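Case study.
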Amino acid sequence: MGKGKPFLEVLASAIHEDFRFPFLEIFAFLYTLGTFAMANFTAGVYSQIGTNETVAFTVTSSLIGFSILIFLILVFKNIAYGLGSELEKGIIQTYFSYPLKRRAILTAKLLSGIGVSLLLFLGIQISAFYIMAPDIVLPQFGTIVLTYAANLSYPLFLSAILLLLTLKLQRGGIGLVVGFVLYIAMSIVSGLALLVATSTKSPLVLQIMSLISPSYALQYHYGGLANVPTLSLPWTPTLTEATLYVVGSYVIVAALFILGYVYFSRRLNL
Amino acid sequence: MKRWVNVLGRVGTTLIAISLALLLVSFIPSTQISSSKGSGGVQPGQFMVVFSPGTITPQEEVQTAITVNGTLNIYLLAVNIQFQFINGNFSYNFNLTDLQELLEEHPEQIKWQHEVENSHYERNYNPTKVMNATVVAYNQGSETAQIEYDVALESILAPGDKVRTIAFVAAPIGVIMAVPWLLDLWKQRKKK
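After joint prediction, the assembly is written out as follows.
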């Protein structure tokens, strides 16, 4: 028997557990409804004096705003309650009887927990955006992809932290709380960081923050926050700089996931 | 085989859920943002700015209802024509020369055009990007034409017809995909 079949077996089982009927359907319904309800093209009206890129960025950001919270809930549920409870109840040990390496088992769990959620999130959001505004989506597809990448980096960073905590504690409850606290903390920290950067006239704090959450770098590139005048912005990165922050943040996310893989494969005692 | 039935079934039920959300979105009523209602005569070789909402977005729809006595060409142009105070007078920042130049040299700015002759004409327009919009009635004939118009800008959640069509296509596909899985589920419950 090849390695493909047992892997698919574990993946199918993980998807079955993570998305019990009608979880997947409810989240698909919410994503669709949320995308149309939260789309804010008026932000694009004000930025029409800018470039088409700015319109694409502002509209995409408005689309992501609410739905990213649904995405986070889904991913956190899958990691904390899915993987966490399987570790707690010892169900994960049954997967070790399959002719698979530990890292393949974790890959299957992550593909189900994060990959399917991501597919659902991006698939519905980009399709809905295309239905509404094909003449924004097609010419500015690169900007839209970059905006999604920047906005998804921090939730993925939190998912990696949650994975490490779940593996270490072998239960999901605490990780879940820490994940949501960190998510809320970032919005508070971003406000404080802007204050510090403005008063010290140094963008260093914003640059450090953008390494973890590069959506801020992109936001500052495209003219800043709605309630902050563009002229008073302490930092205006170029598109290349903002893209580098996005790449840098994904390097950090990848490093954390690799740490999770190493821990699961070598250190986790079950 | 059973795994494929499961996968297709769940994809099907997800499609049904998305279709239901799309249907719900399409039935949420629109709200009026601004409107322009009136009547008047358009001299030969002249034009009339019927409605100029400025910038419109994909979540807005221009609803036009026009009755013409005579012959008029109705255009929806992707330009922002504004009523301004210029040289001590109130006038539009757009004159006949501008219109003729736009029609001849920038046809991409014409979003739709229709010749209305002694009849009533209705048309809705939903843009696919953030753009300027102005509805103009242009008399290219040799006689004065009378026009009566009722044009409004409505706020919508999504382009209703498009979204409804997608829902009506996706839902039956979803049902076809989900039926074998639901039958299997029902049989299993019956056995238990």
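Observations recorded in class. Residues 2-26+161-191 of chain B form one domain. Helices of chain B lie at 2-27, 96-105, 160-191. We will return to this complex in the next lecture.
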